[in-house]
């Protein structure tokens, strides 16, 4: 299990800085959310400066070999509702989800990704990510359905570091109903998100983060075992968002 999560800041937080004009010297605010039973979320809204984040966005938008694969969910085929790409260090076991096994590109082909990886390793002491799943949401109709990144190859307490560029989108977390009824929640639901379930959801059982341009969100501990997350459709989100989730295959 990864140790207690402590994101390093460049200086102590003072006033909440203007999100529109990022600078490298800006103090880094960190919000830590301790979910129950050892699930942890840390959020650093200004992880990478505004200007640098647009440079990364433009590079990734143009240079990543994006694909929109067909995946299988609940025994039905769907086109994944967002573009994707996968990077992994050599010699790791093959990632597979929803019947899809992405080709693993090398970090060496995309030097800016190595720079972001370095920034993340510096921000999260003790981390050593070796793979990366990239997503590109072309507009508000693109989304990721409720799922947990609980594939066995990440181990029982995966730490996942998520960096976002471009259009701001909501990132939702919801507690899994209970340990015996996880089946319908744990596979990536890429079909329309289910309509409201009849069971009432407690306020402490769901959380929402607005993931801004240049932000970092880290999920640790038992978050993947006990919670599901999603980035739902948003009609008003018209522009492109690129998200990077760094993971460690054990
Ligand atoms: O786009 C995001 O913020 C989340 C993506 C995600 O959950 C995933 O790729 O597993
Ligand atoms: Fe995920």
Automatic annotation (TrEMBL):
Entry-linked Pfam families: 2OG-FeII_Oxy_2 (PF13532)
Q: Which residues bind substrate?
A: 74-76, 150
Chain ranges of the Fe2OG dioxygenase domain: 128-250
| Listed Basic and acidic residues bias regions | 181-195
Annotated InterPro entries:
AlkB-like, AlkB-like_sf, ALKBH2, Oxoglu/Fe-dep_dioxygenase_dom
The UniProt annotation puts the region (Disordered) at 1-25, 176-202
Q: At which positions is 2-oxoglutarate bound?
A: 135, 137, 147, 229, 241, 245, 247
Instruction: Name the family the entry cites.
Output: Belongs to the alkB family.
State the protein's name: Fe2OG dioxygenase domain-containing protein
Q: What organism does the record attribute this protein to?
A: Penstemon smallii
The upper taxonomy is: Eukaryota, Viridiplantae, Streptophyta, Embryophyta, Tracheophyta
């Amino acid at each position: 299990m990864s140790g207690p999560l402590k994101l390093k800041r460049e200086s102590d937080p003072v006033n909440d800085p203007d999100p529109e004009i990022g600078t490298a010297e800006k103090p880094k605010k960190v919000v830590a959310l301790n979910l129950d039973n050892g699930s942890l979320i840390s959020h650093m809204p200004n992880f990478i400066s505004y200007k640098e984040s647009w440079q990364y966005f433009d590079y990734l938008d143009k240079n990543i070999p994006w694909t929109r694969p067909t995946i299988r969910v609940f025994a039905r085929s769907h086109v994944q509702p967002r573009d994707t790409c996968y990077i992994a260090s050599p010699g790791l076991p093959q990632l597979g989800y929803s019947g899809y096994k992405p080709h693993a590109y090398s970090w060496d082909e995309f030097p800016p990704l190595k720079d972001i990886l370095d920034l993340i390793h510096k921000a999260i002491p003790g981390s050593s990510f070796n793979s990366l799943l990239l997503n590109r949401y072309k507009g508000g109709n693109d989304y990721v359905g409720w799922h947990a990144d609980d594939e066995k190859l990440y181990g029982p307490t995966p730490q996942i570091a998520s960096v976002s560029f471009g259009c701001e989108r909501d990132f939702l977390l919801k507690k899994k109903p209970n340990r015996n009824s996880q089946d319908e929640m744990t596979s990536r639901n890429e079909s329309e998100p289910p309509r409201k379930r009849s069971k009432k959801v407690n306020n402490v059982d769901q959380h929402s983060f607005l993931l801004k341009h240049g932000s970092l969100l880290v999920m640790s501990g038992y978050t993947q075992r006990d919670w599901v997350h999603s980035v739902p459709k948003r009609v008003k989100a018209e522009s492109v968002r690129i998200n990077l989730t760094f993971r460690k295959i054990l």
